[in-house]
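Protein modeling request. Please complete all fields; requests missing the sequence field cannot be processed.
Requester role: graduate student
Desired output: 3D structure, token encoding
Chains: 1
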Amino acid sequence: MGNKGNVVEARGLTVVRGTTTALGGVDLDVPSHQIVGLLGPSGSGKTTLMRSIVGVQRTTAGSMTVLGRPAGHPELRRVVGYTTQAASVYADLTVTENLRYFAALLGAHASDIERALVAVDMAGLAGRTVGTLSGGERSRVSLAAALLGDPQLLVLDEPTVGLDPVLRRDLWDLFARLRNDGVSLLVSSHVMDEAARCDRLVLLREGQVLADATLPELLERTGTSEAGEAFLALIEARGEEGR
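Delivered output (243 residues):
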């Protein structure tokens, strides 16, 4: 299903809420079998773009295809995994009960539950009620739910927020293994040091794409040495253009 080169293609994607333009004519290609980092400050449009990709955001204009289907198409539900910034799990159920519920919705095999728990290092807490877990642990349960079935694309909104450095490292190692197994990932973050973990970077600010490039390309273009400096250089250059 979908273009062999891209798992997501957006053209002129626009989202307007009242008088606020959350996305202003975004063009975007997410290549298959890569980790694409969606970077930018809070309010830049990252979450709106991700919600558009999974089909839960009403768009004002433009087009979006995901794995060759219109965003939100029913056939995408089994092949696109999505985690929100806030953990989307039930606090009064155990970890395993949550995953059993989501597996039933997806028609996923029961064996997927153990595999997903091991992948996010939550097997030891499988019997715990989610309401007793820390914020980071709840986030990992949400990620486990997104791994159920056979996702071809994972859309992960700030999956490492609130995690300690060791868990952040372990999750990025997991993302790399998933990429190597043929899964495509779009991972949002406002932490610029995570850019080095990505195959490609999309930098957003105020609903606009400032850059879509590899990290080496971005550094060469801006004459900087790290992603944070490059982002600031692009903002300053955009400001000069607008004068």
